[in-house]
Every structure is written in C-alpha cells, then in structure tokens.
Records
---
Amino acid sequence: MSSHTPKTSSERHLYQYQSGRFKVSLFYPNSYQTAMASLGFQTVYHCFNSQPEFSAERIYWDNSGRPSASVSGEILALSISYELDILNFIKALIKWGIEPFADKRSGPLIVTGGILTLINPLPLAPFVDLFLIGDGEHLIPRFRRTYQRYYLEGKAKLLEELSKIEGCWAPALGKPQNITPVSYPRSSPLHSAVITPDSHFGDMFLIEAGRGCPRKCRFCASCHIHRYEYHPPADLIETVKRHINPPALVGLIGSALSDYPYLKELIGYLAGNGYKISTSSLRVDAVDDTILKYLVNSGMRTLTIAPEAGSLRLRRIIGKGMSDALIKRAVKKAREAGFNRLKLYFMIGLPGETDSDIDALIKLVEDMSEIYNSGGLELSLNAFIPKPHTPFQWAPFRGEPYLKKVRKRIKQALPKIKFIPRSSGQEKLQALLSLGDERIGTALYENITKGISIPAVLKDLGVNIEETLGLKGAEYQLPWRGFQSIFDTDFLYKQWRKAQILAELT
C-alpha cells in the first residue's frame, strides 16, 4: 500500500492506494498552492488512484516557470479550471518535449477535464486527445474500463471507443454534436484527499456542502452549468468526523454556501465539537450574527463578500438585486463580530454600466470605509468576462482602454484603499479564451513558440477579434453550440433580453 510520494514533507494523505500498472501523470497547470486548494483536482487525484491497476502522480506548474516533474506513463491527465492556465499547459508540453498538437502526437494520451471543459473546451481542442466533460467520479471509472480493453489496439481505435462514452469528446473525430455533461446528484460530499499547510487555504480539510446556485445571476457560469444541490448536514458531519479530529480546520465549500438551509446548525455543531471553521464568500443577505460569531471564534479574521456592482440599478441588471443598505448592514455586522479585514469583489465593464454606476461604486466603498478603517479594506476590481452557457454570453467585453480608465478613476477616488492588482491585457486574453474556438489555442502556441502576436495570428486564421469580443445578436453562431448545458439557448437569450430591457429603462 502506498500514499504516493508527497509533494511536500508536510502533506497528510487521508487515503492509501494500491500501486497500479497504468501510470497517470495528473497535471494542474498552476502552482502547488492553488492545486491543493482545488477540490476538483483533489477529487480527480483520488478517483484515478481508486481505479484498479491505475496510479496517478501529481505535477504542478512550478513557480520557476516550468512543470514540477517529468511525465511518466501512458496517460497525461489535465485538470484545468482557469482560461489563462491554458498557456501553462502549452508551455509544459514544450518543456517536456511532447508534441503539443494531438493530430501529430503518438503519445502520451492527453485526457482533459475540469470546470473549464464544462464552459468552453474549444481553445484546448488542438492539444487534447479526449475530453471528459462532467463529473470525474462518474467519468473516470468508465474511461478506465474502456482504456484497459482497447489501449493495445492503437490510438485511433482507442479514441473511437472512448468517444462512445457519454460526456466524452475526441476532437480528432470531428466537431461536437450535442455533447451533454455527465452529472448526477452526488450521494456523498466531495472532500480533501490530501491536507497540507502549503495550500492557499492552509492546513484545511475542504468539504463541499453543495454545488450550483439557485440565484441564477446572469453573469455566473457556476449556476448555469450545475443544478443546485446540497448534502444533508448529517452526511457532512459524518465525513468530517471520519477523516479529521478537533481542533482541525474545516473549510466549507460551495458557490451558494449562503443558501445552504442548515448552515447555522452545521457550523454550530462543528464549532460546538471543537472544530475550527472557514467558509467561502458569503452573500451579504445571509450574514448572520451567530454564524459570524462561530467563524471569528474559529480564528477567521477576513470576510469576503461580492457586491459585484456599485449601484442597485446595475445589480438588478445582472440579477443580484441587493440594496446598498443591506450590504452596509452586513459589513457593520462583520466589523462588530471581530473581522478585522474585509475583501470586496466588484466587476467593471458589466452590460449597461454607466458613469453613474461607477460613482455609486465609489460611494459604496467610501461608506464601507467609514465602518472599517481604510486599512482593513481590500478591493478587487475584476473585468466582466462573458461566459458561455450564461445569459451574458452575448454581451460585449468592454476592452482594455475602458477598463484602464475606470480603474484609474476608482483608485484616484479611493487613495487609501488597498487594491488587488489586475491586468487589463490579461483580462482581454481571458475573454478571447472564454469566447473563442480552436483557433485561439493555435494562436497561443504561435505566440509562445515564435513570438508572433496573438491578434496577428488570429487575423491570419480568419478570426475577427472585434466580433468575438463584441455585442452579439440572436443570429450569432456561438462556437460552443455543440455542447449542451442545463438551460437551453432560448431561455438564456430571453434572460439576456430582460437584462437589456432593464438597462434601457433605468
């Protein structure tokens, strides 16, 4: 039995695995700290190692700008969450001496999953042999059985058989036709397989209270690619108690954690039994005195909230219609409870955004700085990036000049506030990767290997960047239309039109 070689001496493995003859190099194209804070990556690591005769070893993108280890074995599995991590993946293939383009590569077999493949896998398609689109805990066992049966019959036959699995797409076999992600209600909560103090979240046992979101904010991918579901508190408590003992730190994960109907009871039980608790971002309308008290008593001192937009008008357009008074009341409660730092997340460049919305954002932050002193506030101004499978997939990306102008204006108006750095150039590239097709992947490769600018390559490939990033009508052919989501295009477009009408009327 083996827990597999720890990547740092401080790792604690919660499972033991048999060594298998089929070797998988599991690559996360970002830092070790980020990878170990990803519950999806940890789940895939556990799933591969739980398969008979399979062994997975982890590889990361090292802080020195190269992969942390070489690839060994027949399978390179990529787990990817962020658009910009595609660059690190391409660079890693080059560093390893592996042919990047799948149609020219004899091996290893590159298999890819992760949240990004549920949103838009197309920019990765030139480099990937097989996409597993959906829940890894269901797809990996099916992949394993088919791989074991056909791996000796050549790559073409293997991909032909693997592509018959629901949720699997082999780009070499053609454009996708109604690929539906594999997703079922989870019978047990996802949780950490490895605990390490070197994770971004520290020495924390992560557990998923639920996934998806019932709110359906129009910009949000998470609530449009996953149906909302949550686990009974008894299941969460049993999982925590099975793997860790008090006073260990439990991190409750969920894109709609504030909507978890038993949140107060769950946190109360864990805290009452000696566990320390941390949470992901909370909705301001769910900030509760009792919950805040439990979190502060657990040692949590930074609260993260995401108003997203500065004015009630704009928040209604995006589907997050909380009032300024509600936001400020939540901030006041956090301060009184003992949180000495507050992280605020806003988006700029949203559909319908005007100068008055930026004025409102500045005023809202000024009001919050009177509750907190300015040194206790940290502000993140993220560019709005249109996401596939959301109502805002037809919305424009506002562009670098606009983003720079707005950020400059806000920073000048709030000189005492700490800002999290953002690059408008990187955000434009992220938007291209979010909204583009296979050609943006090819352009990245040309840029990395030959230094040719991405716009120049895209122009040669026939891509109109202004059209890709611009406002789109109902007739626009969305590149990802061959991939299905839980909401059909007609429903999403009606939501987009509602947002446009709200913007026109207010």
Note: The chain has a mean pLDDT of 94.
---
Amino acid sequence: MDPVSHAEPFARIPENEEPALPRGTAPLYASAPSPEDAATTTPAAAASGPRTFAVDCGGGGIKTALLDAAGTQIGPARRTPVRYPFSPADLENIIATDAAALRAEGADFERLTVGMPGMLRHGVVVYTPHYIRRAGPHTRLDPDMEAVWNGLDIRTALAARFSRPTLVLNDAEVAAAATVTGHGLEVVLTFGTGLGNAIVDNGVLAPHLEFSHAPLRWGLTYDDVIGEIERIRLGDAAWSRQVARAIESLYPVIRWDTLYLGGGNAARITDTVRERLSGSVVFIPNAAGMSGGVRAWDLVAASERARAEG
C-alpha cells in the first residue's frame, strides 16, 4: 500500500532504497540495558529476594531460566522444542520437567512468570496464533487445540499446578518490562516467528494490541510481511527493508517517544538499515524476553495501581 500522506516524520520509501525512520524517537539512553552483559550468577551469589522461574514461550521452543531478585540468571537456561500439536498440558509438563531439574540441582523458585505469543487478558488466553496449529506456525488450524487454548485461564491453571504466584503476559510485554524506563510513550517491537509488541505509557502497561494480525498491504498482515517465513523467502536484506516500512506504517498511529526493537530476528536486521535507524530506535537483546520475568511483576503492579487511582 502507498505510504500514508500524514506521516510527516517519514519520506516515501522506494522499493529499492533503505528508509530513513522517524526523527522524533531519540532514545533516552545510548543503548538499552543488556541482560546478556551480566554474567550468569551462582545460587550463592544471587541477590536476596524472591526467585522467579521465567518461561519464554515461542513458536519453536520453550525456554526457561531461574532469575534472582535483580533479574540475573541463576545457572543455565533450558530450551525444549515445541512438538505439534501442542496442548496446555504439554506446556505445563515442560515447565514441570525444568522445575524438577532445578530442584535436583538444589534450587527452587517462589513465583512463576510466563511470556507467550498472542492476545492475553488478565491471564486468560484470548487468542494464541501458533499452538492452535496442526504442525506449527502458519500450518492448518487444529480445531481441538483451538478449543483448549482460546479462552483458557492459563494463569490460574499454572498457579494451581505449581502452587506458586503466577503471572502470564504476552511475551513482548515481558521483554518490555526488562527494557522500558517509565518515561514517555515507549513501544517494544519483537521480531521472531511473527511480530510481537507492547506499549507502555509513563510506566503503565497499555491493554495489549495484536499489530501482527492487522492488515499491512495487499491483504497481507504484518506477520505475513515481516514474519520468519517471509524473512527466509526474501533474505535478510530485503526483509530488513520490509521491517523498516512496517515501522513507518505504525508511527503515525502511535507516535511513540521511544521505540525498542528486539526478539531473535532483530539481530538479522542488516547493518545498512541499522545505520538508518541509529538515533531513532534502541536495539535490545533477545534475552530481555527472559530477564523481564522479574520486573514484569512491578510493571503489572504499577499499571494496576495507576488504573485504580483513575
């Protein structure tokens, strides 16, 4: 589709050129705090306070890690491939297996944070795009999986299974918790199997919106244009230009103060596009989706207080 005419911070982006992105989005600091910069600590050296078992659910794998009260990873992370069809019981069993491995090593946790793809509202799965498929993302729907996932109160189910306080958010919102400063309108976009997003306004988490399923052009959604399947088809260079155009289309709708780009595929954005993005966005490490498991509790609590105060 043609670029929107009211998007004054952008120039028209020809198909064969790299875009200049919004000038009004200077980062609040030179680089986002990197969870990957902090060395993995040992249990003896962990910060005091509740330990959080963080679970990062992707379309291809489930990652888990134990975090201390400062959000530093204790010991190694674990990753289990997702085998489709994939039910809520399958997710619970993966978490249970990894939790048992922790306890065998002499560690335990006081609370559980889960980030998963899709629309989640107050711990209830309104819609999840991958786990309702027969053989993985973008394959045919599995009616049985659609019935058990959509509408499931996954937070209550996990809290009952593990007897721990449990928080379940969209995975991009967990990454946002590790990243945002609490100043201005901050947007996090994550690039992986599809597009993830979170919006935080002065430290208050906004109700989740699924940009990934919105139409972008020619009847295709954002996921269709900048998801993993399209990246593989186009190659990183052409895909990176697609990403830039997608960002261009979102800016007039949101007009963020700061934009963060993360997720596993953010690292694949080419240097040429990164140079054009310099000063406009902050790149964050993929590990934010895990390390945010601690600050997510504070972000949700602050958001609930702000709404209660009106």
Note: The first strand starts at residue 52 and ends at 57.
---
Amino acid sequence: MPKVQQKATSKQSAVLPLKIEQRLLKHLRPSPTNAKLHSDVQLRSLARSIQSNGS
C-alpha cells in the first residue's frame, strides 16, 4: 500500500509521513501497555447503556 503524506498548513512546521498497514484480524493482539482497558463489569455496563440509549 502506498504511503500517504499530509500537507503542511501554516500552523504546521513539518510534514510527517503517515503509514497505513492492512492486517488480518487474526494477527492483531492487544497491547499490554494500553491504558484503555475495561473490566468485564465496565464492558457489561457500557453494553447496557448503548442498548438502552443508543450509540
């Protein structure tokens, strides 16, 4: 897949390359250092909230 670069605006001083890779879901693994982890209780609560209130 080709690399995509963002154009610099007047507020940006440098252009950083953006690399996008396509991967199969079976190759994805959760990061042990990810701060966005939820307990089973939190996940059930979120699911109930979405079901009753919508997304």
Note: The mean pLDDT is 81.
